[in-house]
Design goal:
alpha+beta; 4 strands; 4-stranded antiparallel beta sheet; single chain
């Protein structure tokens, strides 16, 4: 059995302010196994009323670059999405 398939990707979310050009500034750096792989931003502007407080995948790096992600209800859902898309 391939042991790498049994090891879950370690995802760490680090708080950071993000200059998005809008009031949406609360962000998280997405670090997977020690590598920066993305940036999440919490939606908080009136034009995002239906998705207010959801998390938007602002930018992806490496294998996540260019992927379209849904908005996430919470950070746990975002973490699951990241792990799913980083599986070998």
């Amino acid at each position: 059995m391939d042991k790498r398939r049994n090891v879950e990707t370690l995802v760490v979310l680090q708080s950071i302010a993000v200059d998005t050009g809008s009031p949406d500034r609360e962000g998280r750096l997405v670090i997977a196994n020690g590598l920066l792989v993305g940036v999440l931003v919490r939606l908080d502007t009136p034009e995002h009323e239906e998705e207010r407080s959801n998390w938007f995948f602002e930018a992806g790096l490496g294998r996540l670059q260019g992927l379209r992600a849904p908005t996430f209800d919470n950070l746990e859902a975002a973490t699951r999405w990241v792990r799913k898309h980083l599986k070998p």
